[in-house]
Here is the input.
Amino acid sequence: MYIKDDIAYAGESEPLLKVIGVKAMDDYRLWLRFSNHEERLFDMEPLLAYPAFSKLQDPDLFKGVYLDYGVPTWGEGTIDVAPETLYEQSVQVMQSA
Here is the structure.
């Protein structure tokens, strides 16, 4: 049993999802590797219209993405995106055999 937001749930809680690898790609996409070992692609372009992300329209700043405790981050920690959002809104990269 575990408790989240004052609600008790049966079973074990899901481990926190973290990004363990990130690379900025062309066209404002991110290649991501998650702690569950999935590789996924996330399109940042729709977020660039929001003031919080507008500085990432600068390609040099966008390409400067780095991980801070499992969270993709830019600009000395002033811009980040939650791993859960990245996972839910990304597409899985197909692995070749």
